[in-house]
Amino acid sequence: MTMRKKIFSIFIALVIVLAAWVPAFAESEVPDVTAKAVLVMDLTTGDILYENNADERMYPASITKILTGILVIENVSLGATLTADDEVAVVEPTALRMKTGEKINAKDALYCMLVASCNDLAELFAKHVSGSVQEFAKLMNQKAEEIGCTSSHFTNPHGLHDDDHYTTARDLAKIVSYCMKNDLFREIVKLPEYTITRGQGANKPGSVETVRSTNWLLYNTTTTIYVGPDKTTPKYEGCIGIKTGYTEEAGGCLVAAAERNGTTIVSIVLGSNGASRGTYERAVDSIKMLNWGFENFRTVSFKKLGEEAGTLKVKGGEFNKVKAVLGSSIAVTLRNGENDSDITTRLELDESVKAPVERGTRCGTLDIYVGGELRGSYDIVTASAVKNGGPLSAFGIEDRDAKKIFLALEVFVALVVLAVLACLAYSKIQSERRKIRKR
Fold first, then answer.
1. Domain boundary residue, one of 275, 296, 317
2. What domain range includes position 341?
3. What gap in Å lies between CA 244 and CA 119, rounded to an integer?
4. Does residue 328 surpass a pLDDT of 80?
5. pTM of the full predicted structure?
6. H helices within 47-182, ranges in order?
7. ∠ CA(375), CA(54), CA(218), 5° rounding?
8. How far apart are alpha carbons 327 and 74 in whole angstroms?
9. Domain count, the chain
């Protein structure tokens, strides 16, 4: 074999080996963005699809109102009436510009704060909930910690600049995942606008006012932007929110979410900057990252909450068996080239549980694999509660069966007693008869 043929044969062999080694899927190249910190997430599964500087401390600006909003939903009656004081009336530029003494319904205030990013309403809620901005900030930090944030610190409810007010893209992903599970929050942040009636009273009809969302991806079909070489507008197909932010120190910030064909992608861009002070750039950056997410990933609904996974023995319980079920619904993020048939599972169940057992007690795990790669572990839990059993439960006999056994024993004992009494009575009668015959 000539040297040329040997080299060609080696080349072909290498191509074959590489073809076998390289995964069948290939993600497209991540687009260039102006944002300093970026994170892309599958909202349904919580899987992080891409991150860059996700743990770098960043100023969130009005993205802060995501956390403020969920605290309002959890702590304020939407039928309450709020009254602006002098401090609320002088909060920096805002959509509503509340006046001292002006009243507003809590529901209207919440919608306007999240839709139009009203700084004065954020401060109004802080005082209503906690008495002061400082006390509300403590509540914010407590809530962030409960959610699982590790690199965030909040000093105010609106995000106006403070050097000690910061978060990270990763912490924001945790906050967003938590908030978007709330139906009311999800309903509000997808609205392109909201209409309220202000100044309404006994003798006043009030004035109707409509506020517009600061999130261009929800509605803007008039502004021209360029996403790479493509000329388009900011309105994004399937956009469901959620919140913008801007200060000079923070740059342009946008947490954007969109749904398409059962897949929900969240893009977090912080520190987008350019000629438009970040307003244009944050929209472009978000669209690029959302496009990349939808092009490369999809979500598959795999199993449902409560789906049966097996049966466990119960020791010492009123029942000797209990069903094991999934503790949560399961969805899987698939990359390009991965198919539903690539999903496999491995179930591990405890052999038994000891009474008393509460409903929802963890009793195993279900591991989800895609092409041999572990993608998640999910709890298997007991489907019902099992109380301590009676004396026969130690032998694996259920209380309902024990009752039957005891009832049978009672009947048997009664029959035995009756038989003995009958025998005694008969014996006595025979004895009396013998005496009579002798006499």
1. 296
2. 304-391
3. 13
4. yes
5. 0.82
6. 65-75, 86-89, 106-116, 119-130, 133-147, 169-179
7. 90
8. 25
9. 2
